[in-house]
Write a structure and sequence with these properties.
29% helix, D-amino Acid Aminotransferase, Chain A, domain 1, single chain, Rossmann fold, 432 residues
Length: 432
């Protein structure tokens, strides 16, 4: 790995001025950096990775910038100096929620096409997103913002439409999301959110969003916005019920088994929701629930699907999801050719709290027909923290087969072979 240069200084690599340049805003340690780097190379443009980290998560020889994102004026000044020295950028691309918001701000300053920073800020905040949807007439459940310094009165808590889902407004990956069924469990859940936010380096506002629990089937839509029009890249079914008390993602399988009319209703609702946020360009990842009342948007993120799940999606023989996003950012035409059959992923949930000692059964899981890869992200000796406090998965199982049912069976069978040996952990508190 190459160390990133000082703020505003380019790496000692001479960029090819005959190629367009793409500024990629990536948080330090992002797992998205490598697949997007591969996509940029496949497209034939020169990447410049921007991060706040002390070193760039890109291989030696890739230009990088270390930028003071907390100081927008210095950040823009450094980028303008980079442009003066090495040439303009054709586009700016953010790789996650945080990066997308910063990329939108940079693009606006440079006069490049991008989503408005205010729209990206709305997408990052669950309370603002709910308010934007409601104001635009998009279907939303009952919801209310609860300050975590002053809990609801007993009478107010009794009047809430239980069951509820409570969640912090700025955290992601289902962290802190809990179902509560009574006023008593509401108070316990809010206290748990207070402790969680107190433990976070960047917790965001000390408020929770409470909303009526939405029963029904949950799906995830991966899409691409062009001038406000949404194209569905993939619709994932989640075949297991997600009814709480926590909401850990597990199975994603595509193509969806839902009727075409329902799939189109989901696309339209997500498009309306993105418009309500103010999003008009680039990737979106949306979570929705469907029941007899219609389609309800859980959230819309202005980024691609999380984890390593993007590797499921191939368009044609070699075109990845990341390449589609890069070409779209550069305003290049993209022809989508979807692969035959079904594919899916199991985001392996944390089996128990404690220290991971070893994972058994990997070879048996890998040999299950249909399984194409088993990835364990956690290393021996690392602490495992389940939801709602945890923020990551143990790993991923990927499968491909002719049918949805065969993929689901392969993922379940492979997971059943895995055994996680976890030892308890104790935190020692010292007193002065």
């Amino acid at each position: 790995m190459a160390a990133a240069p000082a703020a505003g200084a380019a790496a000692v690599v001479v960029a090819d001025r005959t190629k367009p340049r793409l500024l990629v805003v990536a948080p330090f340690g992002s797992y998205r950096s490598v697949p997007f780097l591969e996509a940029v190379r496949a497209v034939g443009v020169t990447p410049v990775f921007a991060t706040e980290g002390k070193s760039a998560l890109v291989e030696s020889g890739v230009p990088g910038l270390r930028l003071p994102f907390a100081d927008p004026a210095r950040c823009i000044s450094a980028i303008r100096e980079e442009i003066r020295r090495h040439g303009p950028f054709a586009a700016v691309l953010g790789l996650d929620d945080w990066g997308a918001e910063i990329a939108g701000t940079i693009a606006a300053e440079l006069g490049l096409a991008a989503n408005a920073p205010a729209a990206l800020a709305t997408a990052r905040r669950k309370d603002r997103a709910r308010a934007a949807l409601a104001a635009a007439g998009v279907r939303v459940p009952w919801h209310q913002v609860i300050p975590l310094d002053t809990f609801p009165t007993a009478s107010a808590a009794q009047a809430f439409p239980y069951p509820l889902v409570i969640k912090p407004v700025s955290l992601s990956a289902s962290r802190g999301v809990m179902r509560v069924d009574t006023p008593e469990t509401l108070y316990k859940g809010l206290l748990r959110l207070v402790r969680l936010l107190d433990s976070c380096a960047d917790p965001g506002p000390r408020v929770a969003l409470a909303e009526a629990f939405i029963p029904g089937q949950e799906v995830a839509l991966e899409g691409l916005l062009t001038d406000g029009c949404l194209e569905t890249l993939a619709l994932f079914d989640k075949p297991e019920p997600l009814d709480g008390p926590f909401f850990e993602e597990t199975y994603y399988i595509t193509p969806s088994r839902l009727p075409a009319v329902t799939q189109e209703a989901i696309r339209r609702e997500v498009e309306s929701g993105a418009r309500a946020y103010g999003l008009r360009e680039g990737p979106v990842h949306a979570e929705c629930r469907i029941n007899a009342q219609g389609v309800f948007i859980i959230e819309i993120a202005a980024r691609t699907i999380g984890g390593l799940c993007g590797r499921l999606l191939r368009f044609g023989l070699s075109c990845s999801l990341e390449e589609v996003i890069v070409r779209h950012a550069l305003r290049e035409p993209v022809t989508l050719q979807r692969q035959e059959g079904a594919s899916g992923v199991l985001m392996i949930p944390v089996p128990a709290a404690g220290i991971l000692r070893r994972v058994e059964g990997l070879m048996a899981a890998d040999r299950v027909p249909g399984v194409i890869e088993v990835v364990i992200d956690v290393r021996e000796g690392q602490e495992l923290v389940p939801l709602p406090e945890g923020s990551s998965y143990v790993g991923f199982i990927f499968a491909r087969a002719p049918t949805f049912e065969a993929v689901f069976e392969a993922l379940k069978t492979a997971h059943a072979h895995l055994r996680f040996v976890v030892s308890p952990s104790w935190r020692v508190r010292t007193t002065a």
